[in-house]
Design a protein that fits this description.
By secondary structure, the chain is mostly helical. The protein is built from 4 helices and no strands.
Length: 174
């Protein structure tokens, strides 16, 4: 039994990552480099990472309430692509990402492994806050898609906590 079709010509249904790409694409978390090409081996830029995390928070209904303070301006903000500008600002506001000591963000730079580790730790901390920043008037799902191997959702009513599981697999050796 193969994975669901990810919708990209370069993601074979038998690839180890196909179900993850399919889930993320279906949820609007990721897009391809074109309508038909995902480029699974390509590098991810800092602004792309922010856009994906922003879309994930949208999917999980874990965006902060509108009007939250803390907007940060980077010295190279003009270089941030329009599609990613709001996500970069939000990730900075939530302290999931930060800039460099010179005040820049380097939106087109690839994410380093160290930066990815920091971002994942900060994202986990944000998602672990009890009842933190769930959009008003929404009730998150209590479980995610079966093929993701994890659970989605957010904070429900009545103090119930939801556990988030993120699994990263790689076929590369370090």
């Amino acid at each position: 039994e193969g994975a669901p079709d990810a919708g990209f010509a370069d993601v074979p249904p038998t690839a180890w990552y196909a179900p993850y790409v399919s889930w993320a694409a279906a949820g609007g978390v990721v897009t391809g480099v074109s309508e038909t090409v995902f480029d699974g081996g390509g590098a991810v830029t800092r602004e792309q990472m922010c856009a994906m995390i922003g879309r994930l928070l949208t999917l999980l209904q874990r965006l902060p309430a509108a009007g939250a303070d803390g907007a940060r301006t980077f010295t190279d903000a003009a270089e941030i692509s329009a599609y990613a500008a709001d996500a970069v600002a939000l990730m900075a506001q939530l302290e999931i990402v930060c800039g460099y000591p010179d005040g820049s963000f380097a939106p087109k730079a690839p994410v380093t492994r160290a930066e990815a580790a920091k971002v994942l730790c900060a994202l986990e901390a944000y998602l672990s806050r009890p009842g933190a920043d769930t959009q008003p008037g929404t009730k998150p799902e209590e479980s995610g898609p079966a093929q993701s191997g994890g659970s989605g959702g957010g904070s429900g009513s009545g103090g119930k906590l939801t556990t988030y599981t993120v699994t990263f697999l790689s076929n590369a050796e370090d």
